[in-house]
């Protein structure tokens, strides 16, 4: 099974694209930690390091949570949907979706919000009907002001494909961004628009610096979709295999019927809720 979102194919089931940040706050218990371990959701790179979460703390889990076995959440007290063999050293927004074999460095974030530029003020007073300071002023002065919704929809999800590398201190636009398969984002970049597959981008704002491989090679990689497989099933392939040799070998293995898609179990919010003691 697979799910295609904004042109990126994820080999995870039940993924939901949403602006919602609704979540459940679960107590960290020995039962919850045991559940995460049994389902191969990792909180540290090495088991000997123990758990970075401690009993008595809390863990925020989105309602739409789906994480495949062998995914690695290295920081934070919140989870998000992520595929097998991906690791994140940043607590991404809970409505983020990350594919397989992706690496996310420290302090990656989505910016808080955009303000309209074409109004008499960029202040959120024109749309911030919930702000107590503005409302108290209006009440104290017995005045009224007509708020108009912000035309910019903030809080959009980060859709991050497979085999993506995101460097340290990268910031994403508050409206949300899609990062294509195989892309690389240089540390410190400000990403304001979608990133094409296998592009290397950097800068403020981020722009394309180059592509990882020549166009014909990228086309073959996107056709191959190698991340739908478990790397342990690759035959006669080393970590430093030349890219065209890698493609040739994997294509032959697939043609011979010797490689099947990897379908690890996925963990949902319901699975984690089962560890919460009844009141």
Automatic annotation (TrEMBL):
SUPFAM superfamilies: Trimeric LpxA-like enzymes. Gene3D superfamilies: Hexapeptide repeat proteins. PANTHER family: ACETYLTRANSFERASE, ACETYLTRANSFERASE RV3034C-RELATED. This is Acetyltransferase. It comes from Levilactobacillus hammesii DSM 16381.
């Amino acid at each position: 099974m697979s799910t295609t979102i904004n042109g990126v194919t994820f080999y995870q089931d039940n993924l939901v694209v949403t602006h919602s940040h609704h979540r459940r706050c679960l107590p960290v218990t020995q039962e919850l930690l045991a559940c995460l371990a049994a389902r191969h959701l990792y909180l540290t790179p090495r088991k000997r390091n123990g758990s970075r979460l401690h009993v008595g703390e809390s863990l925020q889990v989105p309602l739409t949570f789906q994480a495949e076995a062998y995914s690695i959440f290295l920081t934070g007290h919140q989870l998000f949907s992520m595929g097998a063999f991906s690791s994140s050293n940043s607590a991404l927004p809970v409505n983020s979706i990350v594919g397989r074999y992706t690496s996310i460095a420290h302090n990656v974030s989505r910016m808080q919000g955009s303000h309209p530029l074409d109004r008499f003020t960029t202040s959120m007073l024109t749309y911030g009907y919930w702000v107590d300071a503005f409302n108290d002023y209006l009440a104290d002065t017995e005045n009224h002001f007509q708020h108009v919704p912000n035309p910019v929809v903030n809080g959009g999800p980060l859709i991050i494909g497979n085999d993506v590398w995101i460097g340290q201190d990268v910031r994403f636009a508050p409206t949300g961004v899609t990062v294509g398969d195989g892309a690389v984002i240089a540390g410190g970049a400000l990403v304001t628009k979608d990133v094409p597959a296998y592009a290397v981008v950097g800068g403020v704002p981020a722009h394309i610096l180059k592509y990882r491989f020549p166009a014909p090679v990228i086309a073959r990689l996107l056709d191959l979709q190698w991340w739908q497989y478990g790397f342990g099933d690759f035959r006669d392939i080393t970590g430093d295999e030349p890219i065209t040799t890698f493609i040739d070998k994997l294509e032959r293995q697939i043609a011979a019927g010797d490689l099947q898609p990897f379908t690890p179990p996925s963990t949902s919010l319901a699975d984690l809720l089962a560890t919460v003691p009844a009141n």
